[in-house]
Design goal:
The protein is α/β, with parallel strands linked by helices. It is built from nine helices and nine strands.
Length: 238
């Protein structure tokens, strides 16, 4: 069945040409196409030349967005003893031990990010089947398994994001709000690009970047030239 395209979307699609845009030009257009009645998120969709079914071609890491996400991230921490109090004092929205794991087992998940101390990971593993599909399973590589709770909570609250490539080798990640200035969105997008390049999986062969599109939550996709973004020097921008 063909999905019906709304009149609003048909009008927005007329604004987007079938070509690769320069990064800043694309982000200026993204803001023009963000016409929903709520604060839309700016999203990037990057197709990579990887096959994540192989362990040496998987991509899971974090990016620190210099201009932040524009969102309030609800952080939960699983720890024990004094570390629970430390997490609460550091700004965690939810903190607990076995009782928090029990809530997760019941499907009571009211957070966007989960951090765990290393000594609690054997217990957290028991709810891995629940957390994994939601992208919430703590990982040392992602910085969400740590005893340094204060730093971790502060970083994620300030704009650090975890992301991964899906089964098709595509990275879907937000990089701000459409209310941001185009230059600020560009700084965040550039940070994302550099992070993806820096964390290229060892098994990735041939052309790594295939394509990158940006869009607002309810807007059309806009293609950016991969080389234009990768060659961009932020300190040379006006």
């Amino acid at each position: 069945m063909t999905k019906k395209v709304s009149r609003r979307m048909r009008e927005l699609l007329k604004l987007v040409e079938e070509r690769e845009y320069e990064p800043l030009e694309a982000l200026e257009l993204l803001k023009k196409t963000a016409t929903a009645k709520f604060a839309e998120t700016a999203e990037a969709h990057v197709r990579l030349g990887i096959d994540p079914k192989y362990t040496d071609q998987q991509l899971r890491t974090t990016v620190a967005l210099p201009k932040g996400t524009g969102q309030d991230i609800k952080v939960a921490v699983i720890a024990k003893g004094e570390k629970v109090t430390e997490a609460t004092n550091a700004g965690a929205d939810v903190a607990g031990s076995e009782e928090l794991i029990a809530e997760i087992q019941k499907g009571d998940i009211n957070f966007d990010l989960l951090i765990a101390t290393p000594d609690m990971m054997p217990q957290v593993a028991k709810v891995g089947r629940i957390l994994g599909p939601r992208g919430l399973m703590p990982s040392p590589k992602a910085g969400t398994v740590t005893f340094d709770l204060e730093s971790a909570i502060a970083e994620f609250k300030a704009g650090k994001l975890e992301f991964r490539a899906d089964k098709a080798g595509i990275v879907h990640v937000l990089f701000g709000k459409t209310s941001f200035e185009p230059q600020d969105l560009l700084e965040n997008l550039k940070a994302l690009q550099e992070t993806i390049d820096r964390n290229r999986p060892s098994g990735a062969k041939g052309r790594y970047w295939r394509s990158i599109y940006v869009s607002s939550t309810m807007g059309p996709s806009i293609q950016i030239g991969v080389n234009s973004l990768r060659d961009l020097k932020m300190d040379e921008m006006p």
